[in-house]
Fold this sequence. Notes:
The chain is an alpha/beta fold. The chain has one domain (23-317): Divalent-metal-dependent TIM barrel enzymes (TIM Barrel, Alpha-Beta Barrel). 43% of the residues lie in helices and 16% in strands. Helix 9 links the parallel strand 5 and strand 6 (220-223). Helix 8 (168-188) crosses helix 9 (205-215).
Amino acid sequence: MKQTIFSFFIISVLFLSCKPKAEEKPDRNISLAQWSLHKSFFGDALNGDWEAFARLLKENPDSLLQGKLNPDDFPKIAAGYGVNTIELVNTFYFSKAKDMAYWEAFKKRCDEAGVKVGLIMCDALGDIGNADLVERQKAVENHHDWVKIAKFLGASTIRVNAAGQGTAKEVAKNAADGLKKLGEFAAKEGINVVVENHGGYSSDGSWLAGVMKAVNMENVGTLPDFGNFCLESGPTGCTKEYDRYKGIAELMPFAKGVSAKTHVFDDKGNEAEMDYARILKIVKDAGFKGNVGIEFEGEKISEDEGIKATKALLEKLL
């Protein structure tokens, strides 16, 4: 009898030791921002004439889709890179803001590709920090459709811009007002609103952190972009830049996602213009858990190569 019990005990231990452990969900998930393929979607429409581009975006947005790739296929394209979460850009779908039949078909494409939408980046909808109250409210309402689309697609977040006119203090006050109003609407739909450091005052980490403190809402936060810290530009590029490491650290307490911007890689696969190990340590030390979005914007290699290089770098460091 004792021998039988002992044998059963040994078999049970062996069985339990061989049983696979439940897969743990990683704290940080690598996603793919659609802007990484903007040249492949827009093609020759990106000819440097941004005024003409903005005009056509309002008048005939689908005419801008002149590239070799179709935004309709982004779920399948992203799955090909081995990612399970995508970040859409509204300017690729500007004519579809009220076309729910389109989004039903798009959601089906996502399901078939095995990917989900994490967030929608929203541009060209007006300034949320507009000095004019009527125009500011109009800009807030222009985002409502995209909040609803995000909810329908199962996304958690939309990304907006905190732009406006006036002094830093004036724009901060107006942007906080606009973000509160949009945040209140989005909260009813269960959607987050995040602001990216995306030029102007928003590329100053302390300024944007101050706006977040003024808004003080659970569903309003930031999307720290590793590369967008240019404060002033000249004919040859950025002439004044905010300290990116300081800026990322200032924005991380409010982060609901991060944008892993890359431009240039060295022969070891590291980003040549910034210390990615240092940046990701800041992200980890902040206790961030969520999507780390690949956003390649380089010129020296193709978008395809840039996406793969960014993903490899993130996988190595995360």
